[in-house]
Amino acid sequence: MVARGWTDPDPALVGLVDEFRDRCVRVYREDPNRVAEDAGKERGIAEGGYGRKQIQELVQNAADALQGAPGRIQVELTEESLYVANEGRPFVDTGVKALLYTHLSNKTGNEIGRFGLGFKSISGISDNPQIFSRSVSFEFSRSQSAEFLSAELDRHYRPSDVPALRLAWTLDPTVEFRSDPILAELSSWATTVVKVPLKEGAAAQLSEEIKDFDESFNLFAPHVRVLDLVDRVGDVSRRFAAAKKGNRVTLTTQDGEREWL
Q1: Most buried of the four, 3, 172, 195, 236, by CB within 10 Å?
Q2: How distant is the alpha carbon of residue 38 from its chain centre?
Q3: How far apart are CA 29 and CA 23, in angstroms?
Q4: How far is Cα 46 from Cα 122, in angstroms, rounded to an integer?
């Protein structure tokens, strides 16, 4: 059973994903060297300062969606996939553009992030991340991008030759929910779920990141009422809850409550 709101995507956002793919291909036709350039930029981001902070970056993006609508975030890690779900605002056009471009973001001074580059670090752990939002759902795919660009540009591209997070294709979320029980459960309450199918060996790195996740994150994002980190790889669950009153934040963890000024 699919929760209400997932079966009626925004036609304008669906069109935006398709339009951007067509526009990107036109640029590549004019200058095929841009394919290698974009792939190189993506590798630089994944191997640089963002390279081992994927969970932190995804949680920050989820927290930004909760600005003005405080609520819950849940991170769930299995050997095969990472999921980050939130019950904030669904995607709008500026959010879609921020993911499709590299240095374009819909964030303002109130959000934690700045340029939206953090999401591109996902290419270090996945070749085909998926975005499920009640307004639009779409996926990136390195292998599909290589096949598509080979046909469109009349050249032969291997998956390693192309960027993973440049071209996107819309998804029917109800089809995906039927084949993924975890995704289906998260969709019952979340407005947006990022699913990241993992490269081999990535789960162990992410398990360590969950173990080391700094609880003070919630002090700077008290609108994240509850943050659940569920690690099925390391069999660990962590929960942080924050409540702000005036200039004080009460942070609740497994160790009890602490009040911060």
Answers
A1: 195
A2: 19
A3: 10
A4: 7
